[in-house]
Every structure is written in C-alpha cells, then in structure tokens.
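Thread title: Can someone regenerate the structure for this chain?

I was given the following input by a collaborator and told the matching structure tokens would be attached. They weren't. Posting the sequence so someone can regenerate them.
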Amino acid sequence: MNEKTLLKYAVIGCGSFGRHHIDALVLRRDIEIVALCDKHIEKCHEVNEKYSLNAQCFDDYNEMLSSMKFDIVTVATSDKAHAGATIAALNAGSHVLCEKPMSLFVDECKDMVTAADKTGKLLMVGQIGRFAPAFIEAKKFVDQGLIGELFFIESEYAHDYSHARGTDDWRVDPDREPIIGGACHAIDLIRWIAGDPVETTAYSNHKVLTDWPVDDATVAIFKFPNNVIGKVFTSIGCKREYTMRTVIYGTKGTITVDNTSSEFTINLSDGNLADGMFGAGEAGIKHKLKANINNHNTAGEHAAMIDSVVNGAPLLMTGREGAKTVMVCRAVVESAKTGKAVKIEYDI
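Best answer:
Regenerated them for you:
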C-alpha cells in the first residue's frame, strides 16, 4: 500500500493490553497509528515516544473521535470502559476491535452489537484463544474427526493476580468476577470447539485473595449439544505459572494442549488413525507435536480484522460471538451464587 491508502488506526488504552496491540501494529506497513488515548495521558506520550509514532494524544476518547476519522479503533481499556468506548467509536464511523471480555454485563454486550448493526461497522472481540497456534491446530484435528466423537472437554484459567491488580486497581472490582474477566478465555475456547453449552452448574470459594471483593476460585460444569460434557476451572490466586491447559477427549483419542508450551500431545486408540500425519510416535499411538506458543497473538487478530475490513473476509470473532461468551460467564456466576443449575440463554 502507498501512504495514501494506509488504514488509519486509533488505540484507546495504552496500558499493558494496549501495548500488546501496538507491538503487533507497528510491524505492519499497511496501517498508520494516528491517535492514542488513555485517561492517564502520560501513557500515550510514553508509547508515542517508544515507537516514534507521531500520533496525536488524548485523554478523552470522545474528543479524539470528534477530532478526526479512523478506519479501525482498538479498544484496550480496563473492562468496564469497553462498552462506552466501543459504542462511541462505532457511532463515529469506525470499525472496532475490542479486547476481551466484551463487557462485564450482557446488556452492554447487546448495546454494542446493536451499535454495530445500526452503523454497519465491524465489531470484533479479542478472544485470543481462537488465535493461539496450538489451539487452532487442536480444533482442526477435532473437526477432522481424528479423535473420534467428542465426549468431554476441560480447560482452565490459572493465573496468579496477587501482584497484578492493574492501574488504579481496575481488576479489584466487585463487578469483575474472575470467570468473566479472566476465564472468558477458557470458556470461549471450549465454546469454539464443542459448541454453545446449554446449562451450567458452578461452585466457587474465596481462600487466597481474601482482600479482593470476589471469589477467587470457580469450577463450572457444562452440558453441551450432542451429550458432550465439559468443565472449566478458574483461579486468580493459585501459586503456579499462568496456563490455559486444555484437554479434549474423543472416542478415539485425546488432545492435551495449552497456550504456554512449545509442544502438545495427541493420544490415539489406533496408530492407523493418524495415517502418517505425525510419524511413528510411540507405536503410532502417542504423538508429541511442536507448537508456536504465541499465546497473545494480537498480530493474528489484527490480520483477521484488516482482512475483513479491506477484503470483506468473514469476521473470525464477531460481536455476537463475544456476547455469547459473556452470557455463558454470567450464567456461571449466577449458578455459583445461587447453588442451582442455570439454563443458558443466547438471546442476541
């Protein structure tokens, strides 16, 4: 692309998440970051200087959106600001890539989808599990029928938040349930592989981050279509390395995969099932495959977003998909609080 056809980008939120996105964007030659926004405007100036962007800096996204036009706006703020910034950007005529979770509240998700529908602009949600290379490979094998018929899937979001409270303590919020703010990753992943769960039963406790206003551990059990069952474990206080370890069980094999390891494993009931795909393995039964970790593949997200904007490619993670993940998360929270099974409604 020549300079006149560069896509104009704005980034709202210049903290750690925003910088993940900017790290990917500055490597592209078909876009230009022309504006940065953060309520702590010094963060914008730091980013501007670090990457030599020559972007305009703002501490109010409404002022930024009224000052110029953008092709794409990335919203990488704290969770509670997602809806307001996204809707404002859509209404200003920009396509939007919004960080996960889409919102902490279902009603806000619906408002965001409505704004995208009304304006005709694209709304993508950054559920990064769908862009992690090992997870992409695992889903491909499931879809190919390599492990037979799916019968159980489990994932986890294990992440020690003890020293990750966020700027202005944005993670320490009674509305930011860990199952929504963090485990939306794991829930979206198993939805992507197994389909939309129809019911959940969940249990939670509060034993590690006792000065936080939310339960810090949750186990959720799910019923999926086709009589598939599943489980997600969430902890924001556990003493271990961050992981989204995931195990996918089929009638002919099992895939064990996570987003922080350079290899994953496929166990098969019959060595002939792989049909030469992986080499001999252990008697053709157990195969260890190499994986590119890249567990925050924001480059992949932006490549998909730009492909949709420029070439009309189908959006890989739509606003409606993002909203459905939040609906599942809210059902888990309700079940854990009430002690009852909750039917999951997808009214979007």
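The longest strand covers residues 150-158.
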